[in-house]
Design brief:
Strand content: 5-15%
Structural class: alpha+beta
Number of helices: 7
Distance between the termini: 53 Å
Helix content: 40-55%
Number of domains: 2
Strand order of the largest sheet: 4-3-5
Number of strands: 10
Low-confidence stretches: 1-16, 72-79, 302-320
Length: 320
């Protein structure tokens, strides 16, 4: 029921003012509701007489129809105007459906809430701010604000624990990496030492053979020089040659012996299969796993919204 003054000038420009329907706005009124302080057209009058919430209102018709009358908007105890209905922009929100807990206009009431239990808002709102429902709403708001503080405290605590968890686990990872590097460095040192030992052993043997070969070469050179120096005397050459033949046999045996000893221990590095798997494994070194913790579920709040007859529980949970 739109709150308008109810009067518009006579279109013809003569006679008294024409009264128009408050809800419709541009339809000539045929009655006036003393309870709603509203002018109504014939259609709105029939609707008014049919609705449970308004059928007992006093309607002025015919000779009782007032040519002027103050509307409820002007008679209201406060200066606030009515809110417009979101579904019917020309209608004011004046009815509260107790069955559905809905705020309605006359059009909403006629369409969807005709047989529901209803209250007329301007009547029940007079002392609402001193009633029990409004008092409980204020208490609920205060309780919610306190619960918000608890919620924030829980969030802050969890954020600190999340940070500490991250720092602790990162420190563990770095220490684990350090242990792995120390182990690898130790194994590297051991393997290098083992290879160096093999190298030194074989290199020492080869140097000894090399020294013997130099002596052998010197003996062979001396033998060649002796033979060359006795070329003029067949006697001395014969004797020297016989002696040289024995030396050549010795040199041959020594050379064969050196040749057999000229060798070394061959080796190759064989990679550890376990380490190889770690190197090609994307989860090598470590993985993250959800810790087994005892999770306790608590409640931040439990309260009702709407009418007590249609209580709806709203629960928010947190992890202790």
């Amino acid at each position: 029921m739109a709150e308008v003054d109810g009067r518009k000038p006579d279109p013809a420009g003569v006679g008294s003012a024409v009264m128009f329907c408050g809800p419709c706005g541009d339809v000539k009124a045929s009655s006036f509701c003393k309870d709603c302080h509203e002018y109504l057209c014939s259609s709105c009058t029939r609707c008014h007489e049919r609705l449970d919430i308004t059928k007992h209102h006093q309607l002025l018709k015919g000779t009782q129809f007032p040519s002027t009358y103050p509307t409820r908007q002007k008679m209201a105890s406060d200066s606030d105007s009515f809110e417009k209905c979101s579904d019917h922009p020309l209608e004011d929100v004046k009815i509260f459906c107790k069955t559905h807990g809905a705020l309605c206009c006359v059009a909403c009431t006629a369409a969807m809430h005709e047989h529901c239990k209803k209250d007329y808002i301007p009547d029940i709102a007079q002392n609402y701010n001193t009633g029990a429902e409004y008092s409980k709403l204020q208490t609920d708001i205060q309780d919610l604000d306190q619960l918000r503080v608890r919620c924030q405290a829980d969030i802050d605590r969890c954020m600190k624990e999340v940070d500490k968890l991250n720092w602790d686990e990162v420190d563990k990872l770095k220490k684990y990496k350090k242990d792995i590097i120390e182990y690898l460095n130790k194994r590297e040192t051991e393997l290098i030492a083992e290879m160096q030992k093999l190298h030194d052993h074989d290199f020492s043997l080869l140097k000894d053979i090399q020294a013997r070969l130099k002596t052998w070469q010197s003996d062979l050179s001396d033998a060649k020089a002796n033979l060359q120096s006795h070329q003029q005397s067949t006697y001395k050459l014969f004797i020297t040659a016989k002696r040289t033949m024995a030396l050549v046999n010795q040199l041959q045996e020594s050379l064969n012996d050196m040749q057999q000893q000229t060798k070394y221990q061959r080796y190759k590095l064989v990679k550890d299969t376990s380490m190889e798997k770690i190197l090609i494994d994307k989860t090598g070194m470590a993985t993250l796993k959800a810790a087994d913790v005892d999770i306790k579920i608590g409640k931040w709040t439990m309260f009702y919204m709407g009418q007590p007859s249609e209580m709806k529980l709203h629960t928010a949970c947190y992890i202790l």
